[in-house]
């Protein structure tokens, strides 16, 4: 991808209003660890005057025209979100992902990233809404399945259906990983404890601890939760 950048820059010099080239250049920067340059290209693409845009028969006005145009603009906005994440600009990234979903509502990746950022802001319901959409759109997206299971399993306000869903999702994630993923087993342990099945919670937490290996931070967190389960207490966030 690095070798493509000079060629894309040459196209930019000759065709500054080529929307697709701006997108490709931004993506090249993003994938080679240059998020600030990526941000500049994506923002330039999003602010191109519609009457001057060229490249690949774009219909006008953008975002009100063809489905393909909306998909492209949604892609640009989503990529901008990832670039903002790489530079630590989480609020901007959240805006980008939410805006991208207005144009491209079937993006499981954007829903998942929005869920993570909303969860960090303690917007539990908003995070779960996007996690559910992510799982609906991509039923094998492990991170979203495990994330939704964790959210339900560690909620002190969870009702009976929530607890059952947490167990179901956590077991699904366990099956997807052959019960060999420390993070997934940690979630399954929390879901079992949420349902007052403390012996099973202890068993899964011990397996998760063994799999955590050299990840000392994760191991310490699992150990703390294991001690709760041994005292017949669920873990709450």
For this entry, give a set of tags.
Serine Threonine Protein Phosphatase 5, Tetratricopeptide repeat; mainly alpha; 237 residues; 71% helix
In short:
This protein is mostly helical. The chain is 71% helix and 0% strand.
Strand tally is 0
As residue ranges, the low-confidence spans are 56-65
Work out the helix count: 12
Task: Report the principal-axis shape.
Answer: elongated
CATH class of the domain at 160-237: Mainly Alpha
CATH structural fold name of the domain at 160-237? Serine Threonine Protein Phosphatase 5, Tetratricopeptide repeat
- Helix content range of the residues, please? over 70%
**What separation lies between the terminal Cα atoms?**
41 Å
Calculate the mean pLDDT score and round it.
91
Rg result: 22 Å
Order of helices and strands: HHHHHHHHHHHH
What is the level-2 CATH architecture name of the domain at 160-237?
Alpha Horseshoe
Largest sheet: none
Q: Could you tell me the strand content as a percent range?
A: under 5%
Q: What is the chains' assembly state?
A: single chain
Structural class per helix/strand content? mainly alpha
Description:
With 237 residues, the protein is mostly helical. The chain has a domain at 160-237: Serine Threonine Protein Phosphatase 5, Tetratricopeptide repeat (Alpha Horseshoe). Helices cover 71% and strands 0% of the residues. It has 12 helices and no strands. It has helices at residues 4-14, 19-31, 35-46, 67-86, 90-103, 108-120, 124-137, 142-153, 160-176, 182-194, 198-212, 216-230. The protein starts with a helix and ends in a 7-residue tail after the last helix. Mean pLDDT is 91; it is low at 56-65.
């Amino acid at each position: 991808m690095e070798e493509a950048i000079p060629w894309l820059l040459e196209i930019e010099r000759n065709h500054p209003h080529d929307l697709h080239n701006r997108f490709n250049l931004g993506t090249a920067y993003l994938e080679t660890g240059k998020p600030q340059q990526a941000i500049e290209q994506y923002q330039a693409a999003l602010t191109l005057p519609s009457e001057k845009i060229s490249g690949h028969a774009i219909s006008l006005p953008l975002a009100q025209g063809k489905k393909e145009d909306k998909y492209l603009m949604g892609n640009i906005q989503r990529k901008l979100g990832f670039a903002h994440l790489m530079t630590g600009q989480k609020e901007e990234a959240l805006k980008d992902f939410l805006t991208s979903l207005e144009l491209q509502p079937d993006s499981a990746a954007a829903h998942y990233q929005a869920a993570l950022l909303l969860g960090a802001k303690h917007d539990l319901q908003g995070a779960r809404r996007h996690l559910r959409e992510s799982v609906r759109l991509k039923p094998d997206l492990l991170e979203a399945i495990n994330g939704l299971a964790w959210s339900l399993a560690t909620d002190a306000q969870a009702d009976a259906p929530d607890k059952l869903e947490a167990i179901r999702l956590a077991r699904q994630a366990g099956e997807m990983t052959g019960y060999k993923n420390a993070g997934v087993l940690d979630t399954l342990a929390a879901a079992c404890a949420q349902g007052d099945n403390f012996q099973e919670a202890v068993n899964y937490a011990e397996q998760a601890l063994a799999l955590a290996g050299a990840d000392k931070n994760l191991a310490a967190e699992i150990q703390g939760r294991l001690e709760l389960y041994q005292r017949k207490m669920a873990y709450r966030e």
